[in-house]
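Input structure tokens:
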């Protein structure tokens, strides 16, 4: 990834992170907010592939782990978003992104990412949540992320596609 594309990807993560912890924290549902950072990582995976999405997922996860009001063990979101980047990048190799496949990818990645985050919390006994609360958080998280997909992913994916070099066809 060249420095220009990396800077744009990092700027997209920072904007998503700021919106997530400021604006969307006021419209949470049962304490769960849409994960805009996860959506940026999924968009990266669908446009740039698994390797770029995993690197961006790690950086974005560390930023999300350290952003206030972080009340969990640092590294949990970093791990979750690396896995999300891998899953989204693998989908890119297998399927040409259509509206249906993008929504399905977001739903799967949101489920996987939120589950990894929640299960690492259970393993580390971070905030003591029961299985019922964990399942509720996962379901709400997936619903909110899918709900915002039509508004976030086209913008981010379009931006990343414009930064792709023109490929010669012969």
């Amino acid at each position: 990834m060249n420095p220009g594309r990396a800077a744009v990807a990092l700027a997209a993560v920072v904007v998503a992170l700021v919106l997530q912890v400021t604006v969307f924290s006021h419209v949470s549902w049962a304490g769960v907010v849409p994960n805009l950072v996860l959506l940026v990582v999924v968009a990266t995976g669908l446009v740039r592939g698994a390797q770029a999405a995993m690197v961006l997922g790690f950086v974005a996860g560390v930023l999300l782990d350290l952003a206030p009001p972080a009340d969990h063990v640092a590294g949990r979101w970093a791990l979750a978003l690396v896995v999300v980047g891998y899953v989204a990048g693998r989908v890119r190799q297998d399927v040409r992104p259509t509206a249906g496949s993008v929504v399905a990818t977001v739903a799967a990645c949101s489920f996987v990412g939120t589950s990894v985050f929640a299960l690492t919390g259970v393993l580390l006994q971070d905030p003591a949540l029961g299985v019922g609360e964990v399942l509720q958080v996962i379901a709400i998280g997936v619903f909110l992320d899918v709900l915002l997909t039509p508004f976030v992913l086209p913008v981010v994916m379009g931006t990343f596609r414009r930064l792709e070099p023109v490929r010669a066809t012969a």
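The CA atoms of residues 104 and 117 lie 20 Å apart. The domain at 3-168 is CATH 1.10.1760.20 (Arp2/3 complex 21 kDa subunit ARPC3).
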